[in-house]
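User: quick one, fold this
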Amino acid sequence: MAKESTLRFGAQTDEVTSLLRIVNMVRTHEASTRPEIGRSTGLGRGVVTQRVDQAIAMGFLEDGDFGPSSGGRAPRTLRFRSERGRIIVCALGALHIHVGIALLKGDVIDDAHGAWDIARGPAETLDTAMGMIDDLLARTPDVPVWGVAVGVPGPVDFATGRPVAPPIMPGWNGFEVRRKFEQRYGAPVWVDNDVNLLALNERARQGDDHVDLIYCKIGTGIGAGLLSQGRLHRGANGAAGDIGHVRVRDSDVPCRCGKLGCLEAVAGGWALVRDAERAIAEGATGYLARAVADGETLTPEEISKAAEDGDAVAIALVQRSARVVGESIAGLVNMFNPSTIVVGGAVPSAGEIFLAEVRQRVYELSLPLATRDLTIIQSANDIREPLRGGAEMVREQLFDATFPRWFAEGRPTIESIFEPAE
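Assistant:
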C-alpha cells in the first residue's frame, strides 16, 4: 500500500513538490500565512489555497490565529501539527542510559536517566533502555511514535545502524540495534555515534544550519562530531571523529582498545580516575584523597569538581588532559578549519581550568589562517543535550532526507523509509 501511494503521488511531480515545500516552509517557520507562501514560492493564490487545504486534510497543517494586518483583512496563520507524532531518543553512554520523548518540533517533553555500564552487553542494555522508554510512553498522551534515535559511544555504520568494532562496547560489534527498536516500536530507527547527536544539538542551539563545527566530548572516552556546512561528516564507515584512539606522541600507555598510547588512555575520564587513584596510593593529599578515604568511588565528574575546588592533584590531571586534547584538536583545526569548537563532557566541566589549556595548545599548534575566526567554547553542559540532538537527527532524516517517500501516507513507516520506492 505504501508503495502504491508513493507511486500515485510521484506521478504528480509538480503538485507533490509544491505541497512538500509548503509543509516544510510552515514547519521551519519560513512562512506562516498563505500570502507569505505565495510570495516565497511564486505560486498563485488559488494554487496556494488548494495546496494548503490538501496539507490540512492530510493532517500536516492546521489554521492558527490571525496574523497582523498590512492594511486589509488580517491573514490567518498556519502551524505544523508537531503534536501528531512522537520521537523516542535513547542516548547510551559508557556508564549511563538516558532516554527521552520529543515532539516533532524537537522539544523534549519527558526524560529519564540511570547509571549503567554499557559493557554489560547489548541484550541487557537495550532491554533496560526500552523498559525506561516504555515507562515514559505510558506517562504521555497516546500519540504514535514517528521515529527513534539511538546514540552509542562508538563508531556506527549509519546505513545499517550497526556498531562497528566499538572499543569500549564488548559484544556490540555488528549488533542489530535498529531491528531491536523497530520490532518494539514499529517506527523508523536511526543509530549514530553519541557525539554526533551532541554536534546536532549544538547546531540547533546556535541556530546556524550551515555551521562548520567540531564538538569534542571528553568523558569516560573521547570522541568528536564533525559538522561541515551544517552536515554531519560520518566517514565511509562511521569512524570519522574517533580521535580517542589517535596515538599520543611518546606515550605507550595501554588503552582499552588493545593499542598503546591512545589519546583516551592518556586524557580520557577513565585515565584520569586511574591516575588519581595511583597518586593517592602514593601519598597525595587533598579533596580527592579524603573522598577515597571516606569510601567514595572516584569518577571523572568528581575529579573535575575537585579541580574547581582547588585540589592540586585534580588540577594537574585536568590540565594535562586538556593539553593533550588540545594537541589533537589542533590537528583537526588545521585539516578541517571549523569556525567553532565546542568542548563538552565530564572532564571539561572543570571550566576554564580545562578550556584555557585547550585554547593555548590549539592556537600554538594551528595555522594562523585556520584560527583567525575560530571560537572555542564550553558546551552548555545540559543533561538533555544528547536527547535534543537525537530529536534533531530524526527530524532531519524524516523531513529533509525521506519526506517525499512517506509523505503520501501521512506518517512515516519503516518500509517507506528504508525500502527504496520503485
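User: anything notable?
Assistant: The domain at 84-200+384-418 is CATH 3.30.420.40 (Nucleotidyltransferase; domain 5).
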